[in-house]
Structures are given as structure tokens and as C-alpha cells.
């Protein structure tokens, strides 16, 4: 179980989850991602830059008509990293659930015995 510290930061985790939901072939326009995650332009830009430096996202700039646009997509490397990070989180959650169950059962038994 190994967490990816770059992805683990809450805003980057949300960005990666959103992009993973789209798949590696799809891209999203910067403004759409910004609105969906309710982030400021500067905040989103900063986090995307870090993810791009790691090779987790690809950022393409171009035009839609005469308007400049920025599109973001998850790379294969990013998808793999996110999947590994998600597996580590799931393992941690499973560990917490399995450790919690005996204690909860014992507490319930003690409560019934006290009646």
C-alpha cells in the first residue's frame, strides 16, 4: 500500500478523480473543469502544472473559433498512478473496516449484557 503524495493532496485528488471518470481518451476544457470543481483559475492552474510536470496530465492550448482554449486530459501514466493511489486508499479503508468490526461487536455484546 503506497500513496502517491502528489495525487494525495485534496485538490489534485479531485482533479485526478474527475479526469479518471472521463477516461484517458477524453479531454475537458479548462473552464468546464474549473466550474465542476469550484476552483479559482489560479488554483486550478497551479495544481494542473504540478500534475503536468509529473506526466499525469496533458495540457493543450488552442483556439475554438477566435477564442483561446485550454484542454486537459489524463495521460496513461496519470491513469495508472491514480489507479494505484485509489487501490492504496481502498486497502486502507478495508483495513480500517476489518479492525473496527470486532470492537463494535464486542461493544454491542457488552451493551446487551448490561441490560
From TrEMBL:
Residues 103-115 have a biased composition (Basic and acidic residues). It holds the Pfam family HTH_34. SUPFAM superfamilies: Winged helix' DNA-binding domain. It comes from the Bacteria. InterPro entries: ArsR-like_HTH (IPR011991), HTH_MarR-typ (IPR000835), WH-like_DNA-bd_sf (IPR036388), WH_DNA-bd_dom (IPR027395), WH_DNA-bd_sf (IPR036390). Residues 94-115 are annotated as: Disordered. Residues 1-105 form the HTH marR-type domain. One of its GO terms (molecular function) is DNA-binding transcription factor activity. CDD domains: HTH_ARSR. PANTHER family: BSL7504 PROTEIN (PTHR37318). This is ArsR family transcriptional regulator. The lineage of its organism: Bacteria, Thermotogati, Deinococcota, Deinococci, Thermales.
Amino acid at each position: 500500500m503506497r500513496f502517491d503524495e502528489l495525487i494525495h493532496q485534496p485538490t489534485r485528488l479531485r482533479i485526478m478523480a474527475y479526469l479518471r471518470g472521463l477516461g484517458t481518451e477524453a479531454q475537458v476544457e479548462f473552464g468546464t473543469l474549473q466550474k465542476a470543481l469550484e476552483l479559482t483559475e489560479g488554483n486550478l492552474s497551479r495544481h494542473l502544472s504540478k500534475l503536468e510536470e509529473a506526466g499525469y496530465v496533458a495540457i493543450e492550448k488552442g483556439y475554438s473559433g477566435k477564442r483561446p482554449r485550454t484542454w486537459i486530459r489524463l495521460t496513461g501514466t496519470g491513469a495508472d498512478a491514480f489507479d494505484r493511489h485509489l487501490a492504496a486508499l481502498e486497502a486502507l479503508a478495508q483495513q480500517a473496516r476489518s479492525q473496527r468490526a470486532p470492537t463494535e461487536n464486542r461493544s454491542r455484546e457488552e451493551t446487551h449484557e448490561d441490560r
